[in-house]
Request: fold
Amino acid sequence: MSNDLKRFHATFFEESREGLEVMEAGLLDLEAGRGSADTINAVFRAAHSIKGGSATFGFTKVAGLTHVLETLLDELRAGKRPLTTDAMDALLASVDVLRGLLKAAEAGVPPTDDGTGIVAQLNAVLTGKATIAVGAGAGAGAAAKVATPARPKAPDAFRIAFAPKPSMFLSGNDPLRILRELAELGPLKSACDASALPAFADVEPSRSYLRWTLELPGGASEAAIREAFAWVEDECDLGIHGDGVAAPAAATATTATVGETEAAAPAVAPEAPEAAASVVAAAPAVAAAGAAPGGGGGGSGGTTGGEDASIRVQASKVDLLINLVGELVITQAMLKQLGGSVEGPLAERLMAGLETLERNTRDLQEAVIGVRMLPVEAVFRRFPRLVRDLASRLGKQVTLKTFGESTELDKGLIEKISDPLVHLVRNAIDHGIETTEDRVRAGKDPVGSITLAASHQGGNIVIEVSDDGKGLHRERILAKAREKGIAVSDNPTDAEVWGLIFAPGFSTAEAVTDLSGRGVGMDVVRRNIQGLGGETVLESAPGKGTKVTIKLPLTLAILDGMTVAVGEEVFVLPLGHVVESMKPAAENVRTVSGEGRVLKVRGEYLPMVHLGEHFGMGGRDKPPISVVVEGDGQKLALEVDELIGQQQVVVKSLETNYRRINGISGATILGDGRVALILDVPGLVRGRHVGKAA
Reply:
């Protein structure tokens, strides 16, 4: 493969993954009865686009599988067969195998599954072995009769006149890809007309100059032939004729078999071979760059401009831009601090300019971070399939509801939040949702429900995973904790009991299965969320269900913080965790046996932690100020010497450059060049026990 085509590999793989997501979502809608003819058409177009792109780039295993897959989808949407359970299982399994094939092709390694098995399964469905219809109203083919209608006698041959318009390449379509698809229908003869090809100096690589006269044997399907041209109907002059009716011949044509089609164009124009080769090579490259899986047909697919115009940019370039903006934030803070020491007639003008710089820097930072923001739908859309497969495997009936899919989150967080959410959803189905029989006996809806919801709250995103199952068993959790030697207070609150399931190795499952029960789930969830600067809160009610709330920062790059001083050191408290600050009265500070010092705030007693003592920096040199913070649903009063102010800080990883320190989530550079540590508020809260009012 030429280096010109390899340049577009990344685009092909990314768009193919998007196409597979379109296919999977559409198939699940069809199975659930939410689909329509448009749904199955979208699934077909996505498969068709992947097939065309893979053929262009020479990924034969992907092209071969999608060809058979496309045949089944074509019959379903044409109403020639119903959508059966066997067909749905084969279609969804095809999506999984295609993901594996594409992943292997992208990595340049042999696939673990070459697709032979799923092709056989698809062919078995095509032979008519499927018998169980599913998803009433699930699209064009769902209501069709099982019997295949009789077909008219095939013509002796099909002759095709194909004349692409000059603008075809600009719409993201490739004439040679279409010819390759036709070649899969039977021995293809082609004659290329290059009479419109100009002299080399006048060639525009983005224009199409060639026309073809093609011939296929009569055994080919006319519907399949027309389908090959479905993307370019508005971008070409097309004539398809059967039963010996001749199509208009292409002038000055050179005949070639399918393997020679690409060479035909330059061969008929010896006076400008380089120009012809340029035109032929440009076609698949433009097609790969402009294709849109699941999108509309050929004519409108490549338009530029307009409200929805977009470009693809490498994530590394955006990361570099964010890093540069972070350095700009640090520089701006330094200038502001230096400007505060300037006196005289220029001081006022200087400060006005620095305020403008600060405002522009913040606007720039928000705009750049916005480039990395993606809707959380990118994570949520994997769960309908997960819920379907797992519920079926466990013999349960479960529906999935999602809310707030358009809520945006940093791309880096999107990629890392998926696994924790998978753990939570699997646990909800396996442990939370009861069997149909148990739900009926409890007077509940036979069909269980799992809800995924996302929303913005202040400077954070909140993701909730809830179910309407049996809830957590308080006494069983306490018994298991004591059995494992986990310290538990004499009269623990519900929040403390639920928190026990996050202990490493904790599980109340009576049997170990391949789904759960080994005690390696919830502790991993909390640890991963903590690694993202977030926190996890669990709530449960017996017989009503369980809810896990995950709170994450919108981005890991820059945060709004409150700077505080302890001795000579400066710490940063993430503003999202700060509740209030105060100078406590002496009568509100008490010492509780076994709890240490606590602070009374409006009838609630909060444990107190002096940051200087906690980090081994010495005691109290002056009357401390208490900052009330909240993390993991619990509050803590942090004692500091001074409140400096509020400012944006650029987060630097301490663990990457040094090592992990309990209670510290990162570091930043202040305006005066000093390094300040960013406190891990949830970690500090978890290290203390919340006292109770007497």
Remarks:
- Residues 130-152, 244-292, 294-307, 689-694 have pLDDT under 50 and may be disordered.
- DSSP finds 23 helices and 23 strands in the chain.
